[in-house]
Write a structure and sequence with these properties.
Layout: E1 29-34, H1 40-53, E2 57-62, H2 72-81, E3 84-88
Parallel strand pairs: 1-2, 1-3
């Protein structure tokens, strides 16, 4: 059993089932979410090129700051416009 520590101090963290993986990205739209940490954009630029070269549709998004969760309107927009999301963490 693995213990995951949650720094938010929740007494009862939400339980979520893992969603099934997408078998392939052909015909899908991939959202790339930059959480605004330094150099996250460098990773996403390379990933966008790689996905684009493979014929995958890509949309880019950015959180206003890495210190806060993504605003609800941004999360809803991503959910409406994308089939898959990749979030970039860097430093």
């Amino acid at each position: 059993m693995t213990n995951v520590l949650d720094p938010t101090g929740e007494l009862q963290p939400a339980q979520r089932e893992q969603l099934p993986r997408v078998p392939n990205l052909v015909g899908k739209t991939v959202g790339l979410l930059d959480i605004s940490k330094p150099r996250g954009d460098v990773f996403l630029d390379r990933l966008e090129k790689h996905l684009g070269d493979g014929g995958v549709a890509v949309r880019r998004y950015q959180k206003p700051t890495f210190t806060r969760i993504a605003p609800a309107d941004l999360k809803f927009q991503i959910a409406r416009e994308c089939d898959v999301v990749i979030e970039a963490l860097a430093d």
